[in-house]
Design goal:
It is a single chain. By secondary structure, the protein is mainly α. It contains 13 helices and no strands.
Length: 282
């Protein structure tokens, strides 16, 4: 009886692993095709047969993107927006999440629920209102305006995720530090924040990824080519002069993805604890 259960368990795990492998392969095929097309010669992606091996591999598309086009300028713009949004959003969300986790004040649950409701509305519903505000305060083609919008959008996710992680940190640790004479700022900076480092790192990277890949606001409120982000630059590749040069577009897409992949692999060890612990308690 015990052996049959063990056999069924092993068989179930094998089937599950096979399913996961198939899902990974299906997911990787478009990426491999994009990589293959980025090192192919000029031509249309739809005019030739599907192949994961280029017939005549070349790095000319990457050279053209980096040398002939303002890709590095768009990269700089995306870095400025991403880092600026991350600093503003995390600076606000960390203190707010700690306050929601540790203090019991009137309207606390109502505010948290209201934040969730606000987060449920699609961003496109606020486009016209934000555009009017930006035009009134002269924030069109401005990084400051986009940073405010991005930080406001990601603060809700950041607050909820880090609040859940702060809830898992025992209050007794802070009480012991208070007995030893530590003040509120010392408790937060020397005890709570180091313990919450996985959640803070993961949340900051999620904010970074959101801004890095954001397309709607970046192409609506930035109308100057010198201020384009990577998303706006890729849109120009696809819609204007390079609408038929899919190898060039594929090379640009691969280059855009590389920095995020590097960041992801650097913080991979924090991903599981930072996201799952943050979602345990609400």
């Amino acid at each position: 009886m015990r052996n049959s259960k063990r056999v069924r368990s092993i068989a179930g795990l094998m089937v599950l692993n096979v399913v996961f492998v198939v899902i990974c392969i299906v997911t990787l095929v478009p990426i491999l095709y994009a990589v293959t097309h980025s090192v192919s010669g000029t031509g249309g992606a739809l005019s030739s047969g599907i192949s994961l091996l280029p017939e005549y591999p070349t790095l000319e598309n990457y050279r053209a993107i980096l040398v002939e086009e303002p890709f590095l300028l768009w990269l700089k713009n995306s870095v400025v927006l991403s880092v600026g949004t991350m600093v503003v959003a995390m600076g606000t969300a960390v203190t707010a999440a700690y306050a929601f986790s540790r203090y019991r004040f009137r309207g606390r649950k109502s505010v948290l629920h209201m934040l969730l409701i606000l987060n449920a509305f699609p961003q496109i519903l606020s486009m016209f209102a934000i555009f009017r505000l930006f035009r009134t305060f002269h924030l069109l083609n401005s990084y400051i305006g986009l940073i405010v919008v991005y930080a406001g959008s990601m603060c809700i996710f950041s607050i909820w995720n880090m609040k859940g992680y702060f809830d898992t940190i025992p209050v007794e640790i802070e009480e012991a530090a208070q007995i030893d004479g530590a003040g509120g700022r010392q408790i937060l900076t020397r005890i709570v924040l180091p313990l919450a480092r996985p959640a803070i790192i993961v949340t900051a990277v999620m904010v970074l990824i959101y801004v890095w890949n954001e397309y709607l606001f970046a192409t609506t409120f930035i109308m100057n080519e010198s201020s384009y982000t990577l998303a706006g630059g890729l849109y120009q590749f696809q819609s204007n002069d390079y609408s038929r040069s899919w190898p060039l577009f594929s090379a640009a897409s691969i280059l855009v993805s590389i920095p995020i992949l590097i960041v992801f692999f650097c913080i991979q060890k924090y991903m599981v604890s930072g996201l799952t612990a943050g979602g345990v308690k609400g």
